[in-house]
Write a structure and sequence with these properties.
Elements: H1 2-39, H2 45-48, E1 50-51, E2 57-59, E3 62-65, E4 71-75, H3 83-95, H4 102-122, E5 127-131, E6 134-137, H5 138-148, H6 153-160, H7 173-183, E7 187-192, E8 202-211, E9 242-248, E10 255-262
Parallel strand pairs: 3-8, 7-9
Antiparallel strand pairs: 1-2, 3-4, 4-10, 5-6, 7-8, 9-10
Helix pairs in contact: 3-4, 4-7
Length: 266
Amino acid sequence: DFQLSTMRRTSQTKRNTDVARLCFLTLLFASIIFQSNAFRQPTTDYERFIFAPNDVCIAPQYFVDSSSQRVFTMRNVPGEGDCMFLAAALATAASMGLGANNVLSRKIAKETRQVVADILEFGKNRNLVIDSQRIVPAKKLLFAASKGEGLTPKEYLRRLRLEGSEGGLHGGGLELTVLSNVLRRPISVYELLPTMAIAKKYHPVECKGVFGDKIFKDPCLEVENSAILSNNLMPGAYSWHLHILVLDSSIEGEKHACVLLPQSLT
């Protein structure tokens, strides 16, 4: 009995030692990871930006179109593989004067995927407007996009209906073309212009293209002294034109979409 009891105590002591050693190694590993992250230098402009709790970028505070000199604020959206759809949903909500949160934007983005896929599937023999000079059959755009992804059109549509966390396709030019037609609104896409350092207040952006350009015009432009166009209670509110900023979120070239909210409507 004495020998058995001694063996049990020895075994228990060994287990306690092993547990203590495992806890120590776990804490040591976590400390190394924390320190490496803490001292890791940002590699992209996006990583250097500072955001408020409501996801509005506060450093830099404004983004300026290098061509039109139009001034925007920028609002971030979650990067979960749905950022393009989330950005379009948030921009649309803001254009109606709604301060949509991420929960609402996610729900809209999920349904937006379905709408875009349905248009491409059931309207494939119909046309989509790209701009004032180009009207293209939907099936031609679908074929080109699916080929670019190495997928069949059927598989492309299946993946398009999935959320990003489920392996869904990221939104791109095809999806923005469809959304522009569905909303009957122009959608501009911007990229950051390189700078020597991140400015605290202004950062230049460049418009790379406009979906629905010169086709989908704001009806309020024809209304004299419009109460809508004169309302600047919040950035981006009541803007007919939607603006999306696409930037590098990692050194590997992964893209992320955010919303640009115009400071004035005229």
